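Try this one yourself first.
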């Protein structure tokens, strides 16, 4: 039973991301490099967040009660801010790299920023999902029985679905974020930051799994629709894609813009 829980939750959490990698990134070496770079930027943001958390925890000490609660809220806030700051830093790096490539070889076709936004978002999402879920996933192999002390037996399943939504949200956040930077719509960056904070704050009500997942998936659907239209999609292209009548759809049709 533990093996079934392990593989089931692993496929729920990482299956869609793995499929996206296989079908849209694995065949292009340059996209793989950008994906790894995006994952690296997220890792550095995690390192800085951990450093801030360590300093704050050392300063506060081992106090109990509300202090630890506020410290946890502070840690989540700082972590989200640092992640979005590194997303912006990665955008600036890609922008400079794209401009430099055009200056060196004007005939070379550089990847579009929309494509880079998707790839970097997937890199952020995969690394975020791995670090947030891998320890929980390893515990699902046992020993022990989830819920034997009155807790919800759906803990692993909830964690898997929450990891999936975070990975997909990072993709959508990346697309919307980069578009806001390109068009200098700074309110878009604020929306990304606030939704990131909202979804992260949902973990504070984790025992209420229904509210938690419903709110997170509502945010994911809204951000997904926004990212779809930002990436150049329309009702017409969606219809052609679903009917398998468009052979040059979205990511595969991206050109330098």
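Now uncover the answer:
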């Amino acid at each position: 039973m533990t093996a079934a829980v392990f593989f089931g939750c692993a496929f729920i959490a990482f299956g869609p991301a793995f499929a996206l990698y296989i079908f849209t990134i694995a065949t292009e070496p340059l996209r793989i490099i950008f994906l790894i770079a995006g994952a690296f930027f997220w890792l550095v943001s995690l390192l800085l967040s951990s450093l801030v958390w360590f300093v704050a925890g050392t300063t506060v000490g081992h106090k109990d009660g509300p202090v630890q609660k506020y410290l946890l809220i502070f840690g989540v806030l700082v972590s989200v801010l640092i992640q979005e700051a590194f997303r912006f830093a990665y955008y600036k790096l890609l922008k400079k790299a794209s401009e430099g490539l055009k200056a060196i070889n004007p005939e070379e076709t550089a990847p579009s920023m929309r494509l880079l936004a998707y790839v970097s978002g997937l890199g952020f999402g995969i690394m975020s999902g791995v670090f947030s879920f891998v320890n929980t996933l390893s515990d699902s192999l046992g020993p022990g029985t989830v819920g034997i002390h009155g807790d919800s037996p759906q803990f692993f399943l909830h964690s898997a679905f929450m990891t999936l939504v975070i990975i997909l949200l990072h993709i959508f956040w990346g697309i919307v974020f980069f578009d806001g930077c390109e068009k200098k719509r700074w309110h878009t960056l604020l929306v990304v930051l606030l939704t990131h904070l909202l979804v992260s704050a949902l973990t504070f009500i984790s025992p209420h799994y229904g509210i938690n997942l419903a709110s997170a998936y509502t945010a994911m659907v809204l951000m997904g629709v926004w990212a779809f239209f930002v990436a150049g999609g329309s009702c017409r292209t969606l219809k052609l894609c679903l009917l398998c009548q468009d052979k040059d759809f979205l990511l595969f049709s991206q050109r330098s813009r």
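Discussion: Helices lie at 2-24, 29-60, 66-104, 113-139, 155-182, 186-201, 209-230, 235-242. Residues 202 and 212 are 6 Å apart (CA to CA).
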